[in-house]
């Protein structure tokens, strides 16, 4: 059985041919960037959407809410508390910048339209002012789901995008993506400072939990699902690598950022967390229009991709 992906705000939901929702153990099992073929199963299309996300390390994450509306502030704080997070609150972009000067935050929920300084300008200043390793994961919040909004958020340097009113599952999934990116940054820093060879020997390039979730999906969707997914990942990764190098050679920061973002999503979909983290670094460099360190990131990404391919080969050889 083959499957289809329908793009929606929350990602993808999975139903079988009878229209019944199938179970998922991971929010990162599938991403729209994998571009699987759209086909029919009998008279029905099989649709896939992410229903939930794996539990992140919530207690250790520092979250900042930048939102000017009192009611929205209260709702966001309550939602975060319900799913295991605590947060500080500021009412505009200038206050968010001030909060970052006085403390570290892992994730920022950034309203796009605020007085004094909006979320777009605040994000641009955040990206211009800090090194890639210390940058927060910024989730844009907007009251309008208009065409081009997501591109505007990405261009400003935001990592993710949700539309108000934000549902609890949508918020939890966005935060989980941010936590996953932040918790892999230590591994990348170790790789960059020369300890990566030691780390590679003791850590898997693929998240075993995500792989197990994908294998379980294969039992419901057919034997060809899991190998087809990994094959599609490898093909897309090669294309994204070529796009990254082409953008860098042309000096096109926007294309570099977009290609890095696309490859990050593809990598997260199959649990290639190391690759995703390197792509996040490249995305940040593209946002700040900095060429410093890009060749080194490419070299590290090539090595990590080789590790991923090797582990995929081992999976198929068993």
What distinguishing features does this structure have?
9 strands, Four Helix Bundle (Hemerythrin (Met), subunit A), alpha/beta, two-stranded parallel ribbon, 318 residues, five-stranded parallel β-sheet, disordered N terminus, 11 helices, Rossmann fold
Describe it for me?
- It is a single chain.
- The chain is of the alpha/beta class.
- The protein has two domains: 58-182, Rossmann fold (3-Layer(aba) Sandwich), CATH 3.40.50.2300; 185-317, HPT domain (Four Helix Bundle (Hemerythrin (Met), subunit A)).
- The chain has eleven helices and nine strands.
- It has helices at 70-82, 93-102, 119-129, 149-156, 168-183, 185-202, 208-221, 225-249, 253-269, 273-287, 294-317, and strands at residues 4-5, 40-41, 44-45, 47-48, 63-66, 87-90, 107-111, 137-142, 160-163.
- The strands form three sheets. A five-stranded parallel β-sheet has the order 6-5-7-8-9, sandwiched between helices. It has a two-stranded parallel sheet with strand order 1-4. A two-stranded antiparallel sheet has the order 2-3.
- A hairpin with a 2-residue loop joins strand 2 (40-41) and strand 3 (44-45).
- Helix 2 packs parallel to helix 3, helix 8 runs antiparallel to helix 11 and helix 10 runs antiparallel to helix 11 (294-317).
- 42% of the residues are buried.
- Mean pLDDT is 76; it is low at 1-56 and 194-202.
Secondary structure: elements and pairs:
Layout: E1 4-5, E2 40-41, E3 44-45, E4 47-48, E5 63-66, H1 70-82, E6 87-90, H2 93-102, E7 107-111, H3 119-129, E8 137-142, H4 149-156, E9 160-163, H5 168-183, H6 185-202, H7 208-221, H8 225-249, H9 253-269, H10 273-287, H11 294-317
Parallel strand pairs: 1-4, 5-6, 5-7, 7-8, 8-9
Antiparallel strand pairs: 2-3
Helix pairs in contact: 2-3, 8-9, 8-11, 9-10, 10-11
